[in-house]
Amino acid sequence: MNSFKELLTIPRLKPIARREALQGLAFIAIWFIGFFIFTLIPMLATLAFSFSNINLAQEEALRFVGFGNYQKMLSDSSLHNALGVTLKYALIALPVGLAVPFAVAVLLNNKHLRAKGFFRVMFYLPYVIPFVAGIFAWGGLLNPEQGWINQTLEALGVQNPPGWLNDPTWVYPSLVILGLWGIGSAVIIYLASLQGVPTELYDAAKVDGAGWWATMRNVTLPMMSPVIFYSLVLGIVGVFQYFLVPLVVTDGTGRPGGATMFFNLYMYKTFFTFQNMSYGAAQAWVLFILILVVTIFLFWSSKYWVYYAGETREG
Amino acid sequence: MATKQANETLAPTRTFSARLARGLREPSRSFIITFIVVVLLAFFLSPLLRITLNSFKTPSQVAELGTPLYPAKARVVEYQGKEYEIYKVPFAEGVRELALYKKGRATSEFIDPANLDAPPIVWTGAWRSLDRAWEFAPTLTNYQQVWDLLNYPRLMFNTIALAVIGTFGTLISNILVAYGFARFRIPGKQLLFTIVIATVFLPEAVTLIPTYTFYVKIGWIGTWLPLLVPAFFANAFDIFLLRQFFLTIPREMDEAAKVDGAGPFRILRSVILPQAWPAVIAVGIFHFVYAWNDYFAPLIYLSTRPDLQPISVGLARFNSIYGNKPELTQAGTILTLIIPVIIFIFMQKFFMQGVVITGVDK
């Protein structure tokens, strides 16, 4: 809060310093104006909506309903189901989303690999492909009859290959596969960070007789932990909000059997399909608080497992 | 690179035999690692290969089982004004490609396409068990059809217009804000910057309902304004990227310009920007690609105006109508992704730099 008080000292600065501060504020004001209009005011309005019976049509008189919308969530089994779907997906998507780009980056960083630059570019390339196009490209591969994955599995002698997107269990791994083209950015970040690990540390580990795994565990992973932390936080924020891919794949129906009715998709339907604004607003705030709690927990836990190599963090 | 040097300095201390063993091992290791990465990459990019191949196939080839992976048509030969299909017919001396002349249950008559006037060859066996002979024959008809059905020129115009205007707004606003954060002594700046970065964690859903309602009230639904106006107010990622880059530019030149009487805009234009263009290009192309990828906002704000929608929304709609015609949807998918991919191929250096600045400096 000290820096907040600092902000109030501007009028008392010397004229030259005050001019510089005001000029600077004028530049950054562009963002703050946008923040107020497009973020802060709507956020607070959402909060206000969630305590009312507001609606686009507004047939009944507008009134304060207290925690009514929040209480409704406690007994809404479809909502519980949607939260369960999101958590189930998160349990698969988060580890895969961390491990796959990491593994690819470690492979691409291997000193024996040839044509590194080429592979780096090729693994990033699909990142620029619009996700809607990516869904249709991978969707064809996952097609239970004509897709290459099942044709390969059948050729390898698998009797009943999975139904992928049509199967309530396999749909989660399938959605993770549909998201694979998004790993490019994380691969590049991990790779740059792997290359940033000081060579002396590897030399020291070698002198100590550490093998590949010991070096990975005691040198690479701790040195990479800030970047892993960054990916994990953004990954969690992303996975809680995940719904665009199922929206495109199933047209928002939640097929098969509600297995893709994600929390955010349900909220979207509450608002756009059922036109229940105040209930949708309450769901949005619950989502926001969930993300906030998890993010705060992660930042708190980071002091136990994230290693900042002797640097003070400059935000 | 550094690890390699370290190894080489260690090498002379090793015995000759160890060096020999290493010399033998290195190429095979590098072969194995490179092979693993090639296999992974092949899997990773296989959807791209599949849709590219399928988009050049005829509908009948896509529907039929047992056809080649590549776009192909069954070979035929014309003989006495009629077309005969060519099959791969096994004989004791090897497989011959022959045209089926007379179908029979137990024996069939074939003619040799290379020597049509020779008497028909009799082959014993069920002709239905034979494989057809295929030839590589890509067709462009899918693309011609999709071009019109998807209203591709219109969608492309919308996407490009949205991307260009949005990129313009993103660049102007983010450069100004990042400049403010990088170069001015403002009391409490640290706090303000933390607030900017914290918005990365805000879920969009928490602003959606009032924003949408507000746009309904002021008549912005069915226009491009909800997609374009916010771009002119900067965003956390791009501010961060540009600020990090601006901070690496030495301040001495700013100071010199200031002594010469240059104002803030003059310094930004003639000192900062000429040195920051890799970061500026990175922000520009990221936004351009983002505009191509953007789906949800155009979906909800332009649902009543298909003629104003960008390509992602158009493609999703096209797929829900023509989902049973994979050759068409795959041609549409190719048409959607081709431009970002081309931009990437030419600009990949700037993409990589941008990713590294935002990701690693965090």
Task: Provide key terms for this protein.
heterodimer; A: 315 residues; mainly alpha; MetI-like fold; 2 domains; B: 362 residues; alpha+beta; 3 domains; six-stranded antiparallel β-sheet; two-stranded antiparallel sheet; 14 helices; 8 strands; 11% strand
Give an overview in words.
The complex is a heterodimer of chains A (315) and B (362). Helices cover 69% and strands 0% of the residues of chain A. Chain A is mainly alpha-helical. Chain A has two domains: 1-50; 70-132 and 174-305, MetI-like (MetI-like fold, Orthogonal Bundle). In chain A, helix 4 (77-109) runs antiparallel to helix 11 and helix 13 runs antiparallel to helix 14. In chain B, strands 2, 3, 4, 5, 6 and 7 form a six-stranded antiparallel β-sheet that branches. Chain B starts with a helix and ends with a helix. Chain B is elongated, with a radius of gyration of 31 Å. Chain B is built from 14 helices and eight strands. In chain B, strand 2 (76-79) and strand 3 form a beta hairpin. Chain B has three domains: 2-55; 76-132; 150-360, MetI-like (MetI-like fold, Orthogonal Bundle). In chain B, helix 2 crosses helix 14, helix 5 (152-183) packs across helix 9 and helix 10 crosses helix 11 (264-293). The model of chain B is unreliable at 1-13 (pLDDT under 50). At the A-B interface, helix 1, helix 2, helix 4, helix 5 and helix 6 of A face helix 1, helix 2, helix 5, helix 6 and helix 7 of B.
